[in-house]
Amino acid sequence: FTYPALPAEDDRDSSKSTECAHAQVKPGKKKKQKKKRQNTEKMFPEKILTEQPTSQSSGNPKQDTYIQTTCDQSTQTDVLQNKSTQTMATQTFQLQCIHTQSMDSKSTQTHRTRPTLREVYEGQGSADHSSEGKEPNQLTLLTWNIDGLDVEDLKERIPSLLSYLGTHRADVVLLQELVPPYLKILQEIMTDYEFLQGDDSGYFTAILLRKSRVEFLQSNIVKFPTTEMGRNLLMANVCFSGQQLCFMTSHLESLKTSSQERMNQLRRVWKWMREAPDSHTVIFGGDTNLRDWEVKKLGGLPDCIMDVWEMLGQPEDCMYTWDTTTNNNKEVPFPVRLRFDRVYLRGPREGLWPHPTRMTLVGLEKLRCSRFTSDHWGILCTFSFESSVQ
């Protein structure tokens, strides 16, 4: 079984076009040894768009296969394929093997070649990242599309993910493209977090709340009524250092051709952010798949909502969160650099105001397998609650 690569677009130059082909990678084999798929591994003429659903639709968009291809260099080419029973079973088996082998090594006294997953997670924590080492009014947030659909190099990518999560110990973690086998491992290892998930099958989002720092109050899932990819908005109301906050995450519709649906979803996100209680700070983070021109087409951000990256002066080192010029996890026929992942803030209309103080990208280190933890970089933000409003 295989998962196809997920190419994407380059918005910067729409005048160029190129022919492209889809390829699939079998786990454990080199990318050069890819086999062509009978129906979709074809060379397409430039600027031709095709869509092929599975021959037998399940009635559930997240269980159907969507293959949309365009060879215009300005157009993203994504293949969204949900796992069949066989593929999900294979991925689960691989992840369980990683977990079991790691746990078995803990009981091996004579020879242990690698630390357990729990040791990887807990061993990375330091005083600087513990709850005791953080300022009471300083909140850290990590949002990351962890690419759970990719089943390659899990023996390195899973420990790497846990290492990052253990190192930073963010107060709030927003994850996208989480899958059930990943979720099971994270829940067993990260017992210091409360887990909220946007779904329980296919791929979905999740909000992780650090129990020693964040008090969970309630959660809600808002379905996007016209999504063709099973996307939704996951929300959590919490109390942090005496402040009322609402955290939101989503994985907005993929593909450039889904621009209108994505903008509709973004409008709904903004609506929920605006309508939160006046006393609440609202922070959204996720994989938006947005192009800057789409935000402009909507008239820009609403007056009360701000882009944290822009608030921090648009730091160049945090500009591109999906960057195939550096990240080689997905093969694309041309270099792509886009700011798919974003963090939005709506401050309270009364009470302490959260000022973003720092933003950095996570997951930049190449692994021994010559790939990265995910095809996306994660975004780590720090907020400081102050009395004055910007």
TrEMBL record:
Compositionally skewed regions (Basic residues) per UniProt: 27-37
Species in which this protein is naturally found: Electrophorus voltai
Record protein name field: Tyrosyl-DNA phosphodiesterase 2
Compositionally biased spans, kind Basic and acidic residues: 38-49
Occurrences of domain Endonuclease/exonuclease/phosphatase (ranges): 142-376
Main location: nucleus
Localization of this protein: Nucleus, PML body
Classification via Gene3D superfamilies: Endonuclease/exonuclease/phosphatase
Region annotation Disordered: where it falls in the sequence: 1-66
InterPro entries: Endo/exonu/phosph_ase_sf, Endo/exonuclease/phosphatase, TDP2-like
Membrane-spanning residues: none
